[in-house]
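URGENT: need a sanity check before tomorrow's submission.

F., can you look over the DNA-directed RNA polymerase III subunit RPC3 record below? I want to be sure the sequence and structure line up before it goes out.
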Amino acid sequence: MPPFTLGHFSQVCCQLLNHYFGEIVGQVGAYLLRRGNRPLFDIPCATGLSIAEVKKALAVMIQHNLVKFEASERNNNIAEYSIIHHNVYCLLRYPKYLYMIKRIYGTSEEILLEILLNLGQASASNVIFQSANRLKEANDDSEFSDPSALHQSFLKLAQDHFIIRCPKLSDNANMQKVPTFEVQEKEKFTVPHLEIGPIAKLLKENAAQLGEHGDSEVIWRVNHERFDVELRNVILVNAAARRVDATAGELYHLILKLWRECSNPDSPTTNALSFNVIKDAVRKNEGSSPILLEHFEQYLRVLYEDTSSLIIKVGDAGGGQFILNYSIVFENLACATLDSIVLERFGSKALRLFRLTRIQKFMEQDQMQNIAMIPAKEAKMFTYKLLEHNFLQIKELKKGTSNFAPVKSFILFHVDLPQQVARTALEASYKGLFNAMVRQMHDLTDNKRLLDKHARLETLLETLRGEGLPEDELAYLSDSMTAAEKLLVARIHSMNDHLTLGQTQADDTILILESYLKFSSMT
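Structure tokens as predicted:
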């Protein structure tokens, strides 16, 4: 780690850069995270790296859309580099991206996305060529080496905005020392005509590289904003399924798709959908379950009458008009998340005080203990614990009876959800995420030799088992690792699984809190 101090979010980003790209990229990234926009010649002095190492690190991060550059305000001939914080953090979500695409589309689209994530940015032909090679090696079947099916899969990803064009050099870029880039709105998701024939020919010849191709200047990258919307929708669908049942989650997923088609995903409130439009969509959807088709009206009524406000009814035209208010929904989800945090850290009585204060807005100490029905001593202890950890805030009201009489003051407790509590929980989530990542890296690094030995042994046993070697000889080979070593490997794998699950859950909490803060700032 560099000598300067980083916040917990920046520490997470620095850890991700170290893990995916190595220590040198991590050092350069950490400096940019700490200092913001910096010119090239500042970075070697601050990090102790050579200019060649810094250039290579910047090139890698620019290729993977983690760093951007623009002309300095003080001197237009000098480029200043800055980290794209959100894109760096999204490195953590790459496994979710791949799982999501496989669930929505299938294996071919997952391979295309994986290749594009590995390359950072690339032309459509290059991504299709490398994906076809990957599928050909994995399946050893000529059917999978046909790039036309992959071309259709690539078109699907672009059509649904999961991938987006990178900006190209502007017309006047040659007149500037620091080039600028631009892309027209209508071209962002338009795939140009691809020459599939030459790609298929190269695949039959087992070529390793694509070489020159017609769309080499049209570069694509992953659209993180679209994946954010989809991950956000997954949280909402899961909330509906937990609140009612899986069929309600299925209906809510379909309604979210309709809202996405007619509304801006960054707007705090969607456009209204009529009852008839939703009903027609359910009927036309091939995957709708028989239970949903039979009890559609009851499930819709349960969703819009529920206090979680997953659906809000705003009119009666067309059988009823329904909207989604993101700020209200994510406020409810954030409150549920914070309630869970308070319960785990301080217990059920502290949760009762926290929830009561949040509902009542402002409360005095005596009111809190009387309404919550908690003994005075315990109520004071839990109140000041919540106050110490920033889950409660104090507001002092002064009341003067006259110019000469002493001023009487009242101490009121309240919950400042957007400005204090949610941000405190968000920072704690980043801290927990960083600790889990560091611990996981520590365990894997310290036991690397043992894990490599175990992996080699398992591969050897699997190969020999396929060749028909007797079980007694396999057991003899398996005994080359002691029982203690096998137990330690099992413990490391179990700990690794728990830490990975913890990181996933922390990321879900972060997404809920960030979405709440984003939409609450718009209202």
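My own read: The longest helix spans residues 483-520. Residues 1-5 have pLDDT under 50 and may be disordered. If you see anything odd, call me.
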